[in-house]
């Protein structure tokens, strides 16, 4: 952990050396620099930034709810962050579902209106009644090779597909959306065990990280010439080795989250060498694929 660890920050606040706002800001730095310790390692940089902004006022409020007779502040704060992370994830999921529903409603509403009613009547637009407004153009269908490439890449990276892509890809490649979802579900089923292993690996890694910091903190408050110091030092060295090993294990499990080529081949009733060729060719025109999926961002 950084120089101003969680406990010392609380003590400074308790002594009146810093305000709640300052303490919360320092704790945000702890969250940012010690992601494994607070189980925030699986958030992307953007998500972590969003979470820190969201949780800041809640950290300030948490100071008033802390009872030092029940637990040490480090344990309390770690629990608070874990609960707030779960609340934030639920809130994000609800917003995404709500936005998806609104987008779907707007789409249906737009296509159900007569063309002359598509005009919004806003002052900054000039509407010529002689020129009918056209409906949004549907995406152009891809050729067979492009369709197969996009399908295979989607299956290969199923876990990272955004909602908008899941809705858009079936239309682009010309297959039924339910069939596309069936392919993705097969990929998820085939890697479900790997996902469980990865989650367990993250938990073990987080446990080792916490113990390393705990032993380090204990050593800081001990005299080097006492027997207990040597015992804790030995535990710390052992836990550091275990941490390094678990980091490698976690990386390996993360790699296994990608469906195997053989799994994709069996699902699509294709030869594995065909899938390999598609994936190899896709590397050279990945920009074109991004242009197809996200034309505004490419």
Descriptive labels:
298 residues; single chain; mainly alpha
Describe the structure.
- This protein is an all-alpha fold.
- It contains twelve helices and no strands.
- It has helices spanning 6-14, 20-33, 45-65, 73-112, 144-156, 163-173, 177-190, 192-220, 227-255, 261-268, 272-284, 286-293.
- Helix 1 (6-14) runs antiparallel to helix 2 (20-33), helix 5 (144-156) packs antiparallel against helix 6 and helix 10 packs across helix 11 (272-284).
- It is elongated, with a radius of gyration of 26 Å.
- The two termini are 39 Å apart.
- 15% of the residues are buried.
- SSE run: HHHHHHHHHHHH
Q: How much beta, percentage-wise?
A: under 5%
Average pLDDT, to the nearest integer?
77
Number of strands: 0
Task: Give the helices and strands, then pairings.
Elements (H helix, E strand, L loop, with lengths): L5 H9 L5 H14 L11 H21 L7 H40 L31 H13 L6 H11 L3 H14 L1 H29 L6 H29 L5 H8 L3 H13 L1 H8 L5
Summarize the structure.
By secondary structure, the protein is mostly helical. It is 70% helix and 0% strand.
């Amino acid at each position: 952990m950084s120089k101003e660890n969680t406990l010392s920050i609380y003590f400074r606040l308790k002594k009146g050396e810093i305000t709640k706002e300052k303490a919360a800001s320092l704790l945000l730095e702890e969250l940012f620099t010690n992601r494994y310790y607070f189980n925030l390692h699986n958030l992307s940089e953007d998500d972590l930034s969003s979470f820190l902004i969201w949780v800041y006022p809640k950290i300030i409020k948490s100071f008033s709810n802390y009872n030092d007779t029940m637990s040490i502040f480090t344990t309390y704060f770690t629990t608070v962050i874990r609960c707030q992370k779960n609340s934030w994830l639920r809130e994000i999921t609800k917003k995404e579902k709500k936005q998806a529903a609104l987008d779907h409603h707007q789409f249906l509403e737009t296509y159900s209106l007569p063309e002359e009613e598509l005009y919004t009547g806003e002052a900054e637009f000039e509407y010529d009644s002689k020129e009918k407004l056209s409906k949004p153009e549907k995406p152009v269908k891809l050729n067979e090779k492009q369709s197969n490439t996009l399908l295979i890449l989607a299956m290969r990276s199923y876990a990272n597909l955004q909602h908008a892509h899941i809705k858009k890809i079936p239309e682009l490649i010309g297959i039924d959306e339910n069939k596309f979802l069936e392919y993705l579900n097969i990929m998820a089923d085939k890697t479900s065990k790997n996902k469980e292993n990865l989650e367990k690996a993250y938990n073990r890694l987080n446990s080792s990280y916490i113990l390393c910091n705990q032993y380090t903190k204990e050593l800081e408050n001990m005299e080097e010439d006492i027997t207990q110091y040597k015992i804790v030092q030995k535990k710390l060295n052992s836990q550091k080795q275990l941490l390094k090993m678990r980091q490698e294990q976690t990386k390996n499990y993360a790699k296994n989250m990608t469906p195997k080529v053989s799994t994709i081949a069996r699902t699509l009733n294709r030869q594995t060498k065909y899938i390999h060729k598609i994936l190899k060719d896709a590397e050279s025109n990945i920009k074109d694929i991004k242009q197809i999926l996200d034309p505004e961002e490419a």
